[in-house]
Amino acid sequence: MHRLWDSYYVAKTVMKKKWPSHLPYDMFITVGLIVAILVSLIVRLLPSLSEARLRAKVAVVLTNLESIGTALNRYYADHQSYPKSLEDLAIPFPTDIFNKDGITYNYRKVDDGWKLYSYGPDEDDDNGDIEYDLTAGYEGNGDIIITNNVKRQEKNSKEDGRH
Fold it and tell me: Checking DSSP bridges between strand 144-149 and strand 113-118, what pairing results, if any?
């Protein structure tokens, strides 16, 4: 008899377009739980998404530096010396993603080759002296650096029997 009465009550309230008094409270609890679960998932995913975005930026920087390094090596093959600045290569370069001033990558001639570097995720110019640890994420300091050490390459090729 009790079930019949509940069914009658629900049918009667639906016909009057009213909800039973306990229904909004239950729906509120359910919706609240769903929102809490979604928020906790989003909070857990955000750090990994920002780390993935950082890794993508670092990959772009490394690719750009490798491309500029190839242009420097071609310049060396044609002129038997490295240029004084990147502008001497007379080709357009992308700007450093980590440089807020929109400046291109940094280039320095060294005794036996060249050094190219980006400011790195800390966005601080360390003059290419402190190398960024690629596994450090946002916690790492230093510049993203690539070098071309001609003497070291010649020494390694002689040791390997290739000169």
Answer: antiparallel
